[in-house]
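Anyone? Bumping this.
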Amino acid sequence: VRLAELASTIRSKNAGVDHITFDSGCLSPDSVAELYGVDKERVTSFVVFEPAQAIKFTIRRRRPAGSAGEPDSFGSQCYPPLFEVDIP
Amino acid sequence: MKIMSPTGHLGFTPIERGSFDLGVAEKPDAIVADSGSADIGPYPLGADLGHSPEDWQRGDIELCLLAARELGVPLVIGSASDTGTDRGVDRYVAIIEELAEEHGLAPFRLAAIRSEVEPARLVELAQAGVKVDGLNGRDPAGIETLRRTDHAVAVMGVEPIKAALDAGADVVICGRASDSSLFAAVAESRGLPRDTALLAGKLLECASFCAEPFMGKETVIGEVDAEGVTVYPMHPQQRCTPASVASHAMYERVDPYAEHLPGGHLDMRDLRFTALDERSTRVTGAVWRPSPAYSVKVEGAGKTGERALAVIGIRDPYTLSRLDQVIDWSRTKLAERYGTPEERGYEVFFHVYGRDGVMGEFETKPVVDGHEVGIIVEAVAPTPDAAHDVCVLASRNLFYARLPEVKGTAGGASFFSDEVLRARPAYEWTLNHIITLDAEGEEPTRAMQLFRTEITEIGKKAVLVK
C-alpha cells in the first residue's frame, strides 16, 4: 500500500532555520535517509508521536533556510516523495 | 478564561473578517496575535525591514485594537512587523497611536517591550565570557560570527509580557517573542498556572491551523482553566478534532513533546485529547518543567552578498537531455571570464524548475520528464554590478551552450526577457543560539534587561513607567 493511501496528513515544514521537519507515518530513520539521499547523520531526529498516530523526522538543511541557493524557504514542499513509500 | 486567536501571523495575509466577528461575539477575555516568523528568511531581520505591506498590518491591528477596546480586554501582539526589531515595535506603536486618534478611542495603557540586541553588545558579552551556544546542532558562535551579524533580537518568554499586563497595560506590543508566550502571559496574569497557560499558547499560536479542514487566518478560541484547554473554531466549516489539534501540537518543531522557552519547557508527553463535541477538543496533561538556567534565544542575520536573478526556459528535448552539460558550459565560461567562484567570491545557482527546482538536493527524482524546464539563475557577488554581470554571463551562456548535435543553431535557450532582475541582497541566519546571563538558580535579572518595557497612556501621551 502507498503511504499516501494510509495517512491523512503528510507534510513538511521548517523547524527552526536549520531543519525541515516531516510529519507522516510508518517509516524508519534508515528508509528516510535513503529516500532523500542524505547521510544518516543529517536525519537529526526521528520520533513517534502517539497522540497524532504519527512519525516525525527532521533533516538538517545544507544551509539555513533563506540563504542564497537554498530552495523552498518554508520547507513546505518537501513531503511528496513520501506518498510513494510502499508500506508492506 | 477565553483567549481569541485571529491569525497565526498578523499582516502576512489579512485576517478573515467573518470568523473574526464571530469570535468577538463570544466575548473573549483577551485577543492575542503573533506577528512574526522565521519562515520569511533572514533578509527582513538582517536588513531591518518589514515583510508584509504595512497597509495589511495596519488593517489587522485596527480590527484587533477596536475589538479589544470595545470589549475592554487586553490585546497582545508579538514579534512586531515580522522580526520584532525596535523598528518594528516603533512602527506598531505609531500605528496604535494613529488608530487611537483616528477612532477617538478612550485613553488606554500601551506597553512596548523592545528586545533588539546590538551585535556589538553580544561581542562584549562573549568577550566577557558569556557563551553563545548553538541550538539544534549549531556550533557556539564566535566573535567572527557575531561581527558579521547585522541585526539580532532576543526572544522573550512569558515574564516580560506578564509583567506589562500586571502593570495594567491594555495593549502590549512585543519585540521578538516566542509565539506561545504571548498567550501564556495573558492566562498567567489571570492567575492560571504555567502548565495550561503555555499549553493554550502552543495550541492557539497559529489560529485556525489547529482545526480542520486546512484554512489560514480564521479565528479560533481557547478556553483555559487550571486543568486544561478547550479549543474550538469560529469558521462554521472548521472543526477542532483530537486529530487536528494533536497534529498541530507537533507542528514546526523537531521534538513534538517539548516546547522550549526561557526558564524551562512544556512537557507534552502525556497530553490527552478528548472530543467534547464535533467541533471542540479538550486537551489536558501538559506539565511545565522549569530548568535551572534561564536561557534566552537570540536570532541574528547578516549580509553575505548582493544578488541578481534571470529567468530562462528550455524546450528542445535534445538540450533537456543534456542539461548538466549546458550548465557546465555556463560555469566554464564564467570561470574563464571572472575566475572560479572560490577565487573571486561569487556564487551561481541554477534552479531548474521541472527537474529539482523545488526540493534541490532532497529531490528523489532529479530528472526532466516533462517537455520544458524553467531555470532561475541566481548570482551572488560582493557588489550589485558584479552580481548583475555574473548573472548575465551565466544566463547568456545557457543560450550559447555548445552541444554536438543540437538542431537549433540560433540559440539553445529562451530568455524570458533577456533582463537581469536586481534581487534583494543575500542574508544568512548567523544566529540561532542561546545565551545565559544569570547563574543557575538565580533570579534572571540580567536576562530581563534584554527586554525593555515602556508604558504610555495613549490619549494623554505621558510616559508612566520606563
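Late reply, but here is one note on the structure posted above: Chain A has a mean pLDDT of 89.
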